C-alpha cells in the first residue's frame, strides 16, 4: 500500500527541512502537491513540486529508463535515526513519523539491500490461476519463461517489495515492451516513498486492458526496472508475455 498524501508530504519536509535552498535552475520550490496526468494510454502519477513542472520525455537506451532532462538534484538523504530525532516536540509531525516509520526499530540482516523486490503478479480475475514471478531467485531463468494473458482481459500489475533500513523516496516501476526486437510501448508508474518495516509493501497499478485482435496476439518481451529518484537500480529483470486468444490455447 502506498503512502497517503500527508505522509508523502512528511517525507518531502523531512528530507528538505535542513536544506531550504534548491537549485535555481530547476525552478522548484519546497511545497509538494500531487496530480494525475495521462501519457498515451497509460496513467502516470507525477509528483509536482509546488508549481507545475513539465517533464520532457527523453528516449534513452543507455539504461533504457526515460528521465527528465533537467538539473534538479534530489535533497540529500537523511538517515532513519536523523529523521527520528527531528522536531521531537512537534506533535503532528511525530504522528506522521510514527505512521511512516512504525513504533519500533526494524531488525534486518545488515548485508541485505535497503530495497528488495520479491515478486511481480499480474492480477486478473478472469485468469484460471495465479500469474506471478519470483524475483528472489534466478532472474536469467525468467527470460525463458512465458506468462500468458488472454486478449482483451482486464488486469493490474502488483509489485511486492521490502524496505529494510532507510526511507526511500520516489520509487518507480518502469517497463519497456518489445515485439520482434522493436520497442512498442513503455510504462512508468510512480510507486512513492516508503519507510522500513518487517512486512512487505505492495504497489498496485491502475486497471489496464490486454491487447485484442489477431494482429496483436503473440509474444512480447518486457524489460522491467525498479528504481528511484536517485536513479538507484534496485532490480532489473526481463520476462515474456504471451497474448493469446484463449487461456489454454
From TrEMBL:
It comes from the Eukaryota. Its main location: cytoplasm. The keyword Metal-binding does not apply. One of its GO terms (molecular function) is GTPase activator activity. GO terms for cellular component: cytosol; membrane. One of its GO terms (biological process) is Rho protein signal transduction. Keywords: Cytoplasm, GTPase activation. It is found in: Cytoplasm. The keyword Transcription does not apply. PANTHER family: RHO GDP-DISSOCIATION INHIBITOR, RHO GDP-DISSOCIATION INHIBITOR 3. Belongs to the Rho GDI family. This is GDIR2 inhibitor. It comes from Polypterus senegalus (Senegal bichir). The lineage of its organism: Eukaryota, Metazoa, Chordata, Craniata, Vertebrata.
